[in-house]
Design a protein that fits this description.
It contains 18 helices and 45 strands. 28% of the residues lie in helices and 26% in strands. The longest helix has 42 residues. Among the domains are: 81 residues, 2-Layer Sandwich (Gyrase A, domain 2); 330 residues, DNA gyrase/topoisomerase IV, subunit A, C-terminal (Neuraminidase), CATH 2.120.10.90. Helix 2 crosses helix 3, helix 3 packs across helix 4 and helix 7 crosses helix 12. The termini are far apart. It is α+β, with helices and mostly antiparallel strands. The C terminus is likely disordered. It is found in: Cytoplasm. Belongs to the type II topoisomerase GyrA/ParC subunit family. Heterotetramer, composed of two GyrA and two GyrB chains. In the heterotetramer, GyrA contains the active site tyrosine that forms a transient covalent intermediate with DNA, while GyrB binds cofactors and catalyzes ATP hydrolysis.
């Protein structure tokens, strides 16, 4: 440190501003941490709480004494011990008196001390207060040298450093505070559970946190409610930090003769303002964010809390409750931070450490109290011993005193003649004459014998840790009998996250998928019921080269599985599909999912649920190279946003089709060269989700699978080729074989026919749509294609120009009325599509 000299010649030391700021700020921070914001691990009190209770003790306002004005208490607190504002001191007293803030209130208040609605308390000149019965367990034994003392802020008085509390207040009432760079947030607990855990720690100090959690099951809030799940509790008790989810307690009542329902809330989460909660619900109704509520009322009174939420007719209460959990403080998180002052330093503790520190505190208090009582007993024994000597030599003592000129001479002579101490001699001189009666003499002798026994007992306690811990345990048991009560907060099993579907009412939707990959949904109610033979309404406006290829009726909560050619599966709930106009195509599926480059949708499967009934169902996946795999539907019950691997694909291969199997189905695979194999699904064992599968059909050179059909009925099989030819054959023509073989020929692959592009199982109530690579589309009534044997070349399905090829085959429900008239315009655009019967060009020759 250097010095500088000013103009007057006076020297001043120079200090580095950086070092001074660091030192001063750290001093300030530690002052806030230790002296204001954080509780002590031993008594669970912050300095202001401790000083308020000590001031009330000094005033003598115990639970069985008359109330005194709160202003008088506040005056003593700030005038003697806590040199801060009166508002801070009064707010502390107010909170300690609120039964909705403290699990076990430490102040018995009379007057307006605030409410759950956030009402401010009355001014301290209007309210009165006194200590509660439980406070005596916190302040008892203060006068027995059980704790250290320190001077107050002006050194005029002494105050306790910590209270000799028997109550584990840190856990029982919790604490919250924000210091410099740290904060504490300890929830209240049930006193019976905490005392049981302390007794267990005394009996077995090696208990683990997990074992203690079987005793202390979790926080117990004064406002009741529910705690959802134990994971957050376990994390907080093991590490000192965790988050628990609190929920209001509610039930449903019938109103208006059972035609409507009302949600009745009887307990709300801890530290939630009831008035603000009701106001928030009303705002949600006003802003039409919740449309199911007709009225909200607060019917709370002195008998308890009651918020009534009336629903409109036919509304589902479970959905409204989930909406309220999501949008209001009916569900709230409580972040636990077990931070307290330990040996003048802030520490984050786990549950066992908190209990151990309190047990150690009680052990120290018991030892110091016993030592104090031993000193007092020895002092009393010393005096009684002197009295006994005087009584045994009564005549001589009386004569000695009478012969003495003054008290000092008498005292000196007593000390010399009977070897008494100064205290003993003075006590003999101060003894009243009534003590010389026979009864009083006997009483002194008995008292002396009793005090000797007490001294022996106290020394035995101090010499045995076991006896000390037995006293600690006995006091815990006495507290449990006096103050133990039942839990208020119920702990329920972990709940799943409230998903959007929990906020959506089930509703039937018509989901349409177009040939070119557009999807949308509309309420089924949009398509009004009509009489037989009606004209119908347009579901999707006709677009060139596109048409509705699939129509599903599903609930808003059902699942759609999208399988891609890359072997991945994506999930979407029906309510997540675009809601488009009745004549719009909707949204491209590729824009709905997070697909990779060149990834395309190979199949769509609607699944209503993944419950126990679906355990028997499996999913069949077929690749272009003839690999097949059967996987349990339950493997796809847990969705991932980025999709999930459904099948391991070999390089160059891709999924072409996916189907749901019920356990008794048969499968028909059709290849590009016209080969077909028909086998029972029992030939295929169930495999894991990422397995590559097994061979379904043995392919020839340059061959590949183009279609997979799950045979559901006795209807015929339609096979179409790239040159516009095809045929329908009975399913009986395709005999059952074992999977993995070459199969039989379904249609002859020739120059005339070309390669097979697709196959479907069809019936006369459907129409088939063929699309050429030029964009030409034809829709053919399947009743115009007669069923012929498998050993034929087929018939012409579409007339193609040179170089044109058929690239796609699909089928839709027949769209005609009873007279055969078109219900909608043909799917043509500028003459690009044609319609008509198929031309029979079969030559009748065997093509096997």
């Amino acid at each position: 440190m250097s010095t500088v000299i000013d103009q007057s010649g006076e020297q001043f030391p120079t200090v580095s501003i950086e070092k001074e700021l660091k030192k001063s700020y750290l001093d300030y921070a530690m002052s806030v941490i230790v002296g204001r914001a954080l509780p002590d691990v031993r008594d669970g009190l912050k300095p202001v709480h401790r000083r308020a209770l000590f001031a009330m003790r000094e005033l003598g306002v115990y639970h069985n004494r008359p109330y005194v004005k709160s202003a008088r208490i506040v005056g003593d607190v700030i005038g003697k011990y806590h040199p801060h504002g009166d508002t801070a001191a009064y707010d502390t007293i107010v909170r300690m008196a609120q039964d909705f803030s403290m699990r076990y209130p430490l102040v018995d208040g009379q007057g307006n001390f605030g409410s759950m609605d956030g009402d401010s308390p009355a001014a301290m000149r209007y309210t009165e207060a006194r200590m509660t019965r439980i406070d005596r367990e916190i302040v008892n034994d203060l006068d027995k040298d059980t704790v250290d003392w320190m001077p107050n802020y002006d050194n005029s008085l002494n105050e306790p450093v910590v209270m000799p509390s028997k109550i584990p207040n840190l856990l029982v009432n919790g604490s919250s505070g924000i210091a410099v760079g740290m904060a504490t947030n300890i929830p209240p607990h049930n006193i019976t559970e905490v005392l049981d855990a302390l007794i267990a720690i005394v009996e077995d100090p090696n208990l683990t946190v997990h074992q203690l959690m079987s005793i202390i099951t979790g926080p117990d809030f004064p406002t009741g409610g529910q705690i959802c799940g134990r994971a957050g509790i376990r994390e907080a008790y093991e590490t000192g930090r965790g988050v628990v989810v609190m929920r209001a307690l509610n039930h449903v009542e019938k109103i208006k003769e059972g035609k409507r329902e009302a949600i009745v809330i009887t307990e709300i989460p801890y530290q939630v303002n009831k008035a603000s909660l009701v106001e928030k619900i009303a705002e949600l109704v006003k802003d039409k964010k919740i449309n199911s509520i007709s009225e909200v009322r607060d019917e709370s009174d002195r008998h308890g809390l009651r918020i009534v939420i009336e629903l409109k007719k036919d509304e589902i209460s479970e959905i409204v409750v989930n909406q309220l959990y999501t949008m209001t403080q009916l569900q709230k998180s409580f972040g636990i931070i077990l931070l307290a002052i330990v040996n003048n330093k802030p520490e984050i503790l786990n549950l066992k450490q908190v209990l151990e520190h309190f047990v150690l505190h009680r052990k120290v208090v018991v030892i110091r109290r016993t030592s104090f009582e031993l000193r007092k007993a020895e002092e009393k024994a010393h005096i009684l011993e002197g009295l006994n000597i005087a009584i045994n030599n009564l005549d001589d003592v009386v004569a000695l005193i009478k012969a003495s000129k003054n008290p000092q001479e008498a005292k000196d002579e007593l000390m010399r003649r009977y070897e008494l101490s100064e205290i003993q001699a003075q006590t003999i001189l101060d003894m009243r004459l009534q003590r010389l009666t026979g009864l009083e003499r006997d009483k002194i002798a008995i008292d002396y014998e009793n005090i000797l026994k007490e001294i022996e007992k106290l020394k035995e306690i101090l010499g045995s840790e076991v006896l000390v811990m037995n006293i600690v345990k006995q006091e815990f048991n006495e507290l449990k009998e006096s103050y133990g009560d039942e839990r208020r907060t119920e702990i329920i099993d972990a709940i799943d996250e409230i998903l959007p579907e929990d906020l959506i009412a089930p509703e039937d939707m018509a989901v349409t998928v177009t040939h070119s990959g557009y999807i949308k949904r509309n309420p089924v109610s949009l398509y009004r019921s009509q009489h037989r033979g009606g004209k119908g309404i347009t579901a999707v406006k006709n677009i060139e080269e596109d048409f509705v290829s699939k129509l599903y009726v599903a609930s808003t909560l059902d699942n759609f599985l999208f399988f891609t050619n890359f072997g991945k599966v994506y999930w979407r709930k029906v309510y997540q599909l675009p809601l488009a106009g009745r004549t719009a195509r909707g949204k491209a599926i590729v824009n709905l999912l997070n697909l990779e480059e060149n990834e395309k949708i190979a199949a769509i499967l609607p699944i209503d649920t993944f419950d126990d009934e679906t355990k028997q169902k499996t999913i069949l996946m077929v690749t272009r190279f003839g690999r097949i795999k059967k996987t349990s539907l339950q493997e796809f019950a847990r969705p991932l946003r980025k999709g999930k691997r459904a099948l391991t694909i070999n390089e160059g291969d891709e999924i072409i089709d996916v189907h749901v199997l019920n356990g008794e189905d048969t499968v028909l695979l059709v290849t590009q060269k016209g080969m077909c194999i028909h086998f029972d699904e029992s030939d295929l064992r169930t495999m894991g989700r990422v397995a590559a599968g097994v061979r379904g059909i043995r392919l020839g050179d340059d061959d590949s699978v183009v279609s997979a059909i799950v045979v559901k009925s006795e209807e015929s099989i339609l096979i179409a080729t790239e040159n516009g030819f095809g045929k329908r054959s009975p399913i009986e023509e395709y005999r059952l074989q074992k999977r993995g073989g070459k199969g039989v020929r379904g249609i002859k692959q020739s120059v005339r026919n070309g390669n097979v592009i697709a196959a479907k199982q069809v019936d006369d109530n459907e129409e088939v749509i063929l699309i050429a690579d030029s964009g030409k589309i034809i829709r053919i009534d399947l009743s115009s294609i007669r069923v012929i044997g498998r050993s034929t070349q087929g018939v012409r399905l579409i007339n193609l120009d040179n170089e044109e090829k058929v690239v796609s085959l699909d089928s839709i429900a027949k769209d005609r009325n009873d007279e055969g008239e078109d219900l909608e315009e043909d799917l043509d655009n500028e003459g690009s599509s044609i319609e008509g019967p198929a031309e029979d060009v079969s030559d009748g020759q065997d093509d096997e």
